[in-house]
Amino acid sequence: MSNQQLVLVTGVTGFIGAHVAVSLLNKGYRVRGTVRTMDKANELVRLNPELKDKIEFVIVKDIMAPYAFKDVIKDCDYVCHIASPFIVENITNNKDQLLDPAVNGTLSALEAAVTEPKVKRVVITSSFAAIGNFTVDPSNGYTYTEKDWNPITYDEAVSANNGIVAYCASKKLAEKAAREWVKEKQPHFDISTVNPPYVFGPPIHPMNSMDSLNTSNQILWTVINGSKVQPSIQHVEVDVRDVANAHVLALESPHLSNGRLLVSCGPFSTNSISKVLRDRFPEKKDVISEPSDVPFNEKHYTLDNSLSKSLGLKYYSEEQTYIDTAAKLWERAEQFAKAKLY
Ligand SMILES: *[C@@H]1O[C@H](CO)[C@@H](O)[C@H](O)[C@H]1NC(C)=O
Ligand SMILES: *[C@@H]1O[C@H](CO)[C@@H](O)[C@H](O)[C@H]1NC(C)=O
Ligand SMILES: *[C@@H]1O[C@H](CO)[C@@H](O)[C@H](O)[C@H]1NC(C)=O
Ligand SMILES: *[C@@H]1O[C@H](CO)[C@@H](O)[C@H](O)[C@H]1NC(C)=O
Ligand SMILES: *[C@@H]1O[C@H](CO)[C@@H](O)[C@H](O)[C@H]1NC(C)=O
Predict the structure, then answer these.
(1) Which stretches in the chain have pLDDT values below 70?
(2) Residue 156 in contact with residue 139, Cβ under 8 Å?
(3) Which atom of ligand 1 is the closest one to the Cα of 90?
(4) I need a surface site. Which of 25, 44, 131, 263 has the fewest CB within 10 A?
(5) What residue owns the CA closest to ligand 5's atom 3?
(6) How far does residue 113's CA lie from ligand 4's centre (Å)?
(7) Quick check: CB of 140 below 6 Å from ligand 3?
(8) How many CB atoms lie within 10 A of CB 19?
(9) Concatenated DSSP letters of 126-173
(10) pLDDT at position 178, please?
């Protein structure tokens, strides 16, 4: 089982990063994970005792510093570049606060990889944000594939006054910059990207409170956190554990040399989440929002996941995703509540 190849995972204490480390270890890889502080590393292991002594942690304080990863790339066979420097709050200057950091953060890993001859591939966590055309009516029934690109231009991104549009643009520009960098520099390794939509799944990474949940899980949490708020959201989701396995696939598959992998478990609505969870956890009915009567929009755009399936990726069912995520969210919330009592 053990192939002992070494993978550098940037952002290993993040929501996706922690699961990527687990998937890689399950496949017999060795994992070196970058963290901002050793406290975060210790917290990850405390939350997941099975990871004890399994990950080699290295400190990278500022992922945007030039050559941030230069000292930690040594002897690595692969890189999974997941860390993202994003601050989405209080953006007053798209270029300086969002676009440049996204691009620089992505290129810094590629520049480091040039210095290690062993590196065969750098997998970059991109996003459906780099693919979707967010100027269109979401009810256009369109099916996105790996061939599509978010059409926003750099100039439009600089002047966008909508935070979400600017965030999506930063993901697009970062992925484009990586692909252009590879074309221009012709390094000794290739790249691939994993492009997920909304990512649900059990959070196994260090968090300060339930408020620090990632945007996607925040949507699910709102449905089950006792507020009885019923948000009416419909989009496309994927399980974080599938995203993690997709990273392993993107690292191994010869078909994905300089390729792109769109991952999706299918459409979701907050209505379907509350239905599934009220059915599965009848004893929790008083904290789970009631489904609203907003009908499911069959014409909402979808994502084509056939490439990932043809390469062997097996997806969690949406029911399993909601159930496992809810159980973990309640568990983490209970731990935070207990910690407050002492
Ligand atoms: C954003 O701005 C608000 C209001 O000025 C402030 O309360 C908040 O702390 C800021 N958030 C961050 C992350 O800087
Ligand atoms: C990004 O990189 C460019 C070119 O190296 C540099 O001029 C700029 O200051 C960097 N920006 C940030 C936010 O690091
Ligand atoms: C994006 O949507 C707009 C508005 O419908 C359309 O004009 C444009 O052609 C689309 N661009 C791409 C690349 O699909
Ligand atoms: C998830 O949220 C944490 C903050 O809790 C942040 O550090 C991390 O970058 C986010 N990850 C993703 C994939 O959005
Ligand atoms: C539940 O979620 C809603 C909406 O995000 C939020 O306003 C509320 O404070 C949350 N309640 C708890 C107990 O976390």
Answers:
(1) 1-3, 85-88
(2) no
(3) 1
(4) 25
(5) 222
(6) 24
(7) no
(8) 26
(9) --GGGT--TTS-GGG--EE-TT------HHHHHH---HHHHHHHHHHH
(10) 98
CATH annotation of 6-337: 3.40.50.720
Would you state the structure tokens that stand for residue 342, as one six-digit string?
Answer: 């002492």
Cβ contacts of 286 within 8 Å, gap of 6 or more: 226
CB of residue 337 inside a 6 A radius of ligand 5: no
- β-strands 78-81, 259-262 pairing: unpaired
- Distance separating the N- and C-terminal Cα atoms of the chain: 44
3-state secondary structure 203-272: CCCCCCCHHHCCHHHHHHHHHHCCCCCCCCCEEEEEEHHHHHHHHHHHHHCHHHCCEEEECCCEEEEHHH
Take atom 2 of ligand 2 and give the residue whose Cα is closest: 104
Ligand lying closest to the C-alpha of residue 91: 1
Phi, psi angles (nearest 5°) of residue 264: -160, 130
pLDDT tens digit sequence for 40-87: 999 999 999 999 999 999 999 888 777 889 899 999 999 999 987 656
User: What pLDDT, on the 0 to 100 scale, is given for residue 1?
Assistant: 44
Residue 3 is predicted with a pLDDT of: 59
Q: How confident is the model at residue 338, as a pLDDT? A: 92
Whole-prediction pTM value?
0.93
The residue type found at 189 is F
pLDDT of residue 25: 98
Q: How many angstroms does the Cα of residue 100 sit away from the middle of ligand 2?
A: 6
Domain residue limits, the chain = 6-337
